[in-house]
Specification:
42% helix, hydrolase activity, seven-stranded mixed β-sheet, HAD_sf, HAD-SF_hydro_IA, alpha/beta, globular
């Protein structure tokens, strides 16, 4: 976990209940959910197995222990979870080294949050080695804190990553806005007591209490996020 927490005076804009913004990475800020599936397909093909496309909705957004474990069980592949994790991380790192497209609206949102000194954390189920590689493209200066999936006792869909981010920033989870793209991530954020903006990437997500669903990050700005706090008290 890395942290450069801003001074207390910058934490909350006057008149706003919003204390921090916590952002997922894959499929939310960077268009990489498809990359993971491509890498999983390639790795299992090298092991002599073909992945069923319907499994994509099972593994999307989940921690590697869950998604890789599911694929091993579903295919019967002769490989350990530890061995598969190395292959998947290696393949993904090579893939993002060739191309790492940002989601529409991501660069603008990060710049706006930085300009207004809103404490912002990157909270991902990806491992630290992957997060640090992606940060080179996103800009590490945009984040006061980053939380990786291999740095918490339990990753998404458990609340631990978002609780750790809020604690690291010194803010109340109930006054944090979380932006997520999968049901797994949404479940983690809601379990932590945060307000959630869902921007579905692979599978649909329905609106609910304390959860707003939008089609793109282009619909999300600081005014929108501050408004969530007042609308959902």
């Amino acid at each position: 976990m890395t942290s450069t927490v801003p001074a207390l005076g910058t934490r909350t804009a006057e008149g706003s209940a919003l204390q921090a913004v916590l952002l997922d990475m894959d499929g939310t800020l960077v268009d990489t959910e498809g990359f993971w599936w491509d890498v999983e397909t390639e790795v299992f093909a090298s092991l002599g197995h073909t992945l069923d496309d319907s499994w994509r909705h099972v593994v999307v957004g989940g921690p590697m222990t869950r998604s890789a474990g599911f694929l091993i069980e579903a295919t019967g592949a002769d490989i350990t979870l530890a061995e598969l994790s190395v292959l998947l991380n290696d393949g993904f790192e090579e893939r993002i080294g060739r191309d790492l497209p940002l989601m529409p609206g991501a660069a603008r949102l990060l710049a706006e949050l930085s300009t207004h000194e809103i404490p912002t954390a990157l909270v991902s189920a990806s491992h630290r080695r992957i997060i640090d590689r992606v940060l080179k493209s996103l800009g590490p200066h945009h984040f006061a804190l980053t939380v990786a999936g291999d740095e918490v006792p339990r990753t998404k869909p458990h609340p631990d990553p978002y609780l750790a981010a809020a604690a690291g920033l010194g803010v109340d989870p109930a006054r944090c806005a979380v932006v997520e793209d999968t049901a797994t991530g949404v479940a983690a954020a809601e379990a932590a007591g945060c307000h959630v903006v869902a921007v579905p990437s692979v599978a649909p997500i329905t609106p609910a209490a304390r959860r707003t669903v939008v089609a793109s990050l282009e619909e999300v700005d600081l005014t929108f996020l501050r408004g969530l706090m007042t609308q959902m008290r």
